[in-house]
Amino acid sequence: AAVARATELGATRFLELGPDASLVTAIEETCPDALVVPVLHRKQPEATSAVTALARLWTDGHAVDWSAFFAPLGGTLVDLPGHPFARDRYWMENPETARTPTAVDPVDAQLWDALERGDVELFAAELGVDAERPLRETLPALAARQRERRERAALERLCHQESWDPIVVPADRPAAGHWLLVEFAGDEWAEALAVELSTRGVTVSRLRVGVDELDRAVLAGRLAQFAEVDRVVSVLGRSEAAHPESAGVPVGLVATVVLVQALGDAGVDGPLWTVTSGAVSVGPGEAVTSPLAAGVWGLGRVVALEEPGRWG
């Protein structure tokens, strides 16, 4: 009744001041067209929730004193940089003598060179026709070649290629911080990584999980004791064994999904880095030896979009 009366008086926005979003659903059911914003949420840090609430009110048209908001940080308003226009000239400097160069596809260069030099044998060989055949039979072959080149060029414009640059880390480069290493028992990579990090000054905590522990609530309970770590490194994604309850889905992919969810539930803010090997090709001719682990890469792109602060 109170919410309905407030609406009658012209209220269109409701701001809940409390430890959680306990009234949001009730208000939304009473006033479907109203904006309901909780300042705090029990599953999010206070600062994140409060600033998110402020931003939602601002995007809905409510006036916000941003100068006061940024004053403690010393921030000031600045103009965005201008667009970097490409200032290229296309006017001919001397119209009397200038000529527009014609770009020739390297694949066709030899063909047109043979045509200009009158080399009948080479021209016929490039087209794949008999040099003695009449022009009436040669022209269709030339047209087919041009059509194939156009179709191939159109296809190439739709493709992209990833490039990889190896990073060499000096053996004596120090590191710091408190890292959590999440692993399945017996993973030799985890053991080697823990030793290497320790020699570089990193405080390493290790959490070994079993396939039977890949439950969000169970894993969150175990992760709660590591809330202060600076970084989480998972080698769970390396496992390509089939998950017993998810036919055709590797254990490594399921484990990574559960880990991402459980880290948020446990309040662990350290970014997550996940390790694979042979999941994708990073060089010409390199074989993909663990294709099932490529699913972790696809998952990582989704997590990076939905939880950018989570994905390392």
TrEMBL record:
It comes from the Bacteria. Residues 108-152 form the Polyketide synthase dimerisation element domain. InterPro entries: Ac_transferase_dom_sf, NAD(P)-bd_dom_sf, PKS_DE. This is Polyketide synthase dimerisation element domain-containing protein. It comes from Micromonospora mangrovi. The lineage of its organism: Bacteria, Bacillati, Actinomycetota, Actinomycetes, Micromonosporales.
